Every structure is written in structure tokens, then in C-alpha cells.
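Customer escalation, tier 2.

The customer says the design service returned an amino acid string that "doesn't look like it belongs to this structure." They asked us to rerun it and document both sides in this ticket. The original C-alpha cells are below, unchanged.
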């Protein structure tokens, strides 16, 4: 297996774990329920793709192969035992760069509860500690307010706009790049996030 994989990362009710084929029914139902919420941000192919869409099992096998080869970490995101989204580390590069990119999506019905900032913080800490990476980046459409709030809460640096960066819904779209290096968070991203955004006291 690749360095840092498989892995299970937890903080309270938030749990990241490998995406599995048995998640198929729940994952497909979640995506169907969130079509309007997620489609404006979903990457698409600029080249027409012929034939039927791959099955969920094929999708998971592809992601698992990438994880075993060390280029991607496909996490399922659970909250209180329920599948609510996904966090994926991609473009993992070692050598003199030691960097990766993080993407994520979350169901609308649990948005705004601090789930995704916690999940992304766990993921970045895993990249820095278990994988030994030096830099992570997150690329976000300038219009995607919920995703922008995640990186703002975690204190990632805004590195500016990448013009026509990614193909989405039939057009090349600009993205803002946010990044963090290991030296900026010696205490860890989750620790810094909790210090800045303490959980409310229990009633």
C-alpha cells in the first residue's frame, strides 16, 4: 500500500475513511438529492464521452487503484455514522515539490455545521504528517461561497485567480487558489481551527 493509506481520520462525529463499493446506494442517493446544490461546481470533460457512464463499482476501483499507487486519497466523509460527502486528495507529488490538491463536496442537509472545515483540517494534517508533504492547495470557483468559507475558516492563503483553470458544465472556468505549507501550521491545522473556532459548550 502507498504511504498514509488506507487511513481512518476522526474528530468527534466527523470521520474520514476509504470510499468502498458498499457505499454505492447511499452515495448515489446522496448525489441525486444534491444535484442542484453540487452540479454548478462539478468538473466535466471538454471532450464528449461516448457510451454509458461507469458503474459506482468501477468508479471505486479506479479511485482505489490511484490510492494504492500513491497519487490520490479518496475519503468518504461520515457524520454521526451517516455518509454525507467526500474529500479527495489528488495530484500527490513527491520529489522536490511534495504537494497535493484537495477537493471536497458535502450534502446540503448538513452544510453549515463545521463538518467540512473539520474534515479538510484532518485531511491536511494527514498530508503533512503521514505523507510528509510540504504544500497543499484547494482550487475554488470565485462564486462558490460555501467552499470559500471553508478555506477562510482554516486560514489558507489566497494565491490569486487561475484563469480558465477547469472545465465545468461546458465552459472553462476561473478558480481561486488557496494554499498552505507545513511551516505555517506547526501545531496542525485542526488544532489551529479549534483554537480560532471553539465548539459551543454543551447545554
Amino acid at each position: 500500500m502507498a504511504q498514509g493509506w488506507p487511513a481512518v481520520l476522526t474528530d468527534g462525529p466527523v470521520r474520514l475513511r476509504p470510499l468502498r463499493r458498499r457505499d454505492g446506494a447511499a452515495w448515489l442517493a446522496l448525489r441525486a438529492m444534491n444535484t442542484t446544490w453540487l452540479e454548478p461546481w462539478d468538473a466535466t470533460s471538454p471532450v464528449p464521452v461516448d457510451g454509458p457512464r461507469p458503474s459506482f463499482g468501477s468508479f471505486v476501483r479506479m479511485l482505489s487503484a490511484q490510492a494504492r499507487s500513491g497519487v490520490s486519497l479518496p475519503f468518504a466523509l461520515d457524520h454521526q455514522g451517516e455518509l454525507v460527502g467526500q474529500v479527495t486528495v489528488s495530484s500527490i507529488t513527491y520529489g522536490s515539490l511534495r504537494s497535493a490538491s484537495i477537493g471536497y463536496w458535502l450534502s446540503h442537509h448538513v452544510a453549515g455545521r463545521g463538518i467540512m472545515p473539520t474534515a479538510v483540517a484532518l485531511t491536511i494534517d494527514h498530508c503533512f504528517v503521514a505523507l510528509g508533504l510540504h504544500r497543499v492547495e484547494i482550487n475554488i470557483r470565485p462564486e462558490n461561497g460555501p467552499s470559500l468559507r471553508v478555506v477562510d475558516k482554516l486560514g489558507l492563503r489566497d494565491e490569486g485567480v487561475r484563469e480558465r483553470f477547469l472545465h465545468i458544465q461546458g465552459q472553462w472556468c476561473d478558480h481561486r487558489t488557496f494554499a498552505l505549507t507545513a511551516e505555517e501550521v506547526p501545531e496542525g491545522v485542526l488544532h489551529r481551527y479549534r483554537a480560532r473556532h471553539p465548539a459551543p459548550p454543551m447545554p
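Tier 2 assessment: The sequence is consistent with the input. The radius of gyration is 17 Å. Residues 9-196 form a domain with the Aminopeptidase fold (CATH 3.40.630.30). Sent an explanation to the customer and offered a walkthrough call.
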